Amino acid sequence: MSGTRAQPTREEQAAVLKESIYLVFATLSVTLAIRAHGDVSAPAALATLAVTLGGTVLAVFTADVLAHTVVHGVMMSRHEFAHAVRTSFGALSSVTLPFVFL
Question: Which residues are listed as membrane-spanning (predicted)?
Fold first, then answer.
């Protein structure tokens, strides 16, 4: 068994893309709201954005786990759980630029 991970399937790639789109829209919304309020310090803006993104990722991950349990009647397998973690938390890389610009 080699140490390399198999290439993601099209379904896995689509799931990561979907989560990335959620996070990009959440980031855009928060960034526009912060800008509209005018006098917001950079640390406050970063904290607001981090809390929003963290909450969004945790909500999406929790929804994936609960939906799987409801639909299948059992908890996720180790492989399914790892996929849910990669999908939800891997999408965070798509929103690094707003942190750089703030």
Answer: 21-38, 44-71
- Per the rule left: phi > 0, alpha: psi between -120 and 50, beta: everything else, 77 is beta
Nearest partner of 74 among 82, 83, 65, judged by Cα: 65
Q: Give the C-alpha separation, 56 to 41, whole Å.
A: 23
What is the pTM assigned to this prediction?
Answer: 0.75
Q: Which long-range contacts (CB under 8 A, 24 or more apart) does 46-53 make?
A: 46/99, 46/102, 49/98, 49/99, 49/102, 50/99, 52/26, 52/27, 53/23, 53/26, 53/27, 53/92, 53/95
- Alpha carbon 101 to chain centroid distance? 19
Distances (CA, A) of 28 to 21, 52, 69, 94: 10, 11, 32, 12
